[in-house]
Amino acid sequence: MLIPAILGRKLGMTQVFDGNRRLGVTVVQAGPCVVTQVKTPETDGYSAVQLGFEDKPERLCLKPEIGHDKKANTPVKRFHREMRYPQGQAADLKLGEEVKVGAFEGVAVVDVTGTSKGKGFQGVVKRWGFLGMPSSHGCSKRHRAPGAIGRMGSISKGVAKGKRMAARMGTENVTVRCDLFKIDAEKNLLLLRGPVPGPNGGIIFVRRSKVNDVTVARRAKAAEAAAKAAESAKKKSVVPVKK
Fold first, then answer.
1. What is the mean pLDDT of residues 180-194?
2. Which of 38, 45, 227, 239 has the fewest CB neighbours in a 10 Å radius?
């Protein structure tokens, strides 16, 4: 698979040990996914594949949904996500082919896309990090107020577009970068290190990060330098014995 990508469901967090270190990781039930559609430049103007995840009871499906996934010879899927290829690159997956976590072998960094947790209607202090008014003398009932929002001294009157104000917070489509700690091919699990968006049970899309190759090379170089430094320190610590 040229660009490893997969749909999954966030299960929650747990702890793992890496040598003497105890690390917190997020467990993701990733796949298996099925290729439900292959797009080509001749038919659609660009190259892409559509992945389907998690079976859906047929009694809950519409006829277009049943017909769409029937072309891939697979049960109707509950979630679909399109993965687009760079211009000029043809899709390397076939209709009905299965995608599993084994495609991420050798990947160190992934981009995780999901819907962030909803936090309801929030004020400017929590939503935008406003400092607020001082809690000392002279302030009454205005500690977390946004302050003035107009612009009377300007040629343009009224409230400026994009003004940071109180509003609903969260429930946005966000992408974060995480480290891929471990792959469990038998159970179709990914262990990720980083702020995976969304609540437990939420659907996320995981794909190899664009900076994966650079990050792998940088970490290998740092490990090599650390090994040389440790070897040099070990040689210096050896005291010659006088005869």
1. 91
2. 239
Strand partners, 77: 55
- Tens-digit pLDDT profile for residues 78-106: 999 998 888 878 888 888 888 888 888 88
From CA 178, how far away is CA 171, in angstroms rounded?
A: 20
Give the whole-angstrom CA distance, residue 196 versus residue 199.
9
Q: Rounded to an integer, what distance in angstroms lies between the CA atom of residue 80 and that of residue 71?
A: 14
Which is nearest to 75 in space by CA: 53, 94, 93? 53
Beta strands 203-208 and 109-115, pairing class: antiparallel
Question: Quick check: pTM over 0.70?
Answer: yes
| Type of residue at 241 | V
Asked whether 19 and 33 are in contact (CB, 8 A), the reply is: no
Contact 19, 67 (CB under 8 A): no
**Cα–Cα–Cα angle for 111, 117, 122, rounded to 5 degrees:** 130
Q: What per-residue confidence (pLDDT) applies to 221? A: 86
> Longest Cα pair distance anywhere in the chain, in angstroms?
92
